[in-house]
Specification:
Specifically methylates the N7 position of guanine in position 527 of 16S rRNA. Pfam families: GidB. Belongs to the methyltransferase superfamily. RNA methyltransferase RsmG family. GO terms for molecular function: rRNA (guanine-N7-)-methyltransferase activity. The protein is an alpha/beta fold and 205 residues long. The chain is built from seven helices and seven strands; from the N terminus they run αααβαβαββαβαββ. Strand 6 and strand 7 form a beta hairpin. The longest helix has 18 residues. The chain is globular, with a radius of gyration of 16 Å. The chain starts with a helix and ends with a strand. The mean pLDDT is 97.
Length: 205
């Protein structure tokens, strides 16, 4: 498992980005004590389980500036992406979360770290955002997640979804309701994990 120094050596983030990620770690731990944001045990492996898991998405869409994180919850991957895009002109990460109390946490983090992010207390499928990439982690099984993502994908967004070891069965099930092009990418943070890259989406007729 990585510590802060090893994460920086692996990813090449700046000292300022590393400091923002460390501050986010502190805020996450503080709020997690009173609100169920992430599994408490995962805080000990923050730099691998959360920071690296989230930041690896930038390698798959290196030029993208406008992102939407659906079911943003604890801010993973959206807050990490916003930290790393902070000095990129025109960058915005839309943090979409339907639970008001989690939106309060997200707003606190965005303000504290002065991030290029907007918090939306809304259902993902109700928003009409034009983004380059739509992402999610621990949001829903693929069938439902594709439903949430449909408005974004149909406007041309690339889907990058962080998934675990059951991804193959999730994709098989999703194929009963949706037609889409999917490519599985290996995860840098977990050998069992996969990133599902999705392009194009329509309902099965």
């Amino acid at each position: 498992m990585l510590d802060a120094a090893a994460y920086q050596a692996l990813t090449g983030v700046s000292d300022r980005q590393l400091a923002d990620l460390a501050r986010y770690q502190e805020l996450l731990a503080t709020w997690n004590a009173v609100m169920n944001l992430v599994g408490p045990a995962t805080l000990a492996t923050y730099w691998t389980r959360h920071a690296l898991d989230s930041s690896q998405l930038l390698d798959l869409a290196p030029g993208a500036k406008i992102w939407a994180d659906l079911g943003a919850g604890a801010g993973l991957p959206g807050v990490v992406l916003a930290i790393l895009l902070k000095d990129t002109p025109g960058a915005t990460v839309h943090l979409v979360e339907s639970m008001a109390k989690r939106c309060r946490f997200l707003s606190e983090v965005v303000t504290a770290l002065d991030l290029p992010a907007q918090v939306h207390n809304a259902r993902a499928e109700d928003l009409k955002l034009k983004v380059e990439v739509v992402t999610a982690r621990a949001c829903a099984p693929m069938t439902r997640l594709l439903g949430f993502s449909q408005p974004y994908l149909q406007r041309g967004a690339l889907g990058l979804f962080l998934k675990g070891q059951d991804v193959a069965s999730e994709l098989t099930e999703a194929g009963k309701a949706w037609t889409f092009d999917a490519e599985l990418r290996p995860s840098q943070s977990d050998p069992r994990g996969r990133i599902v890259q999705v392009k194009g989406l329509s309902r099965v007729r």
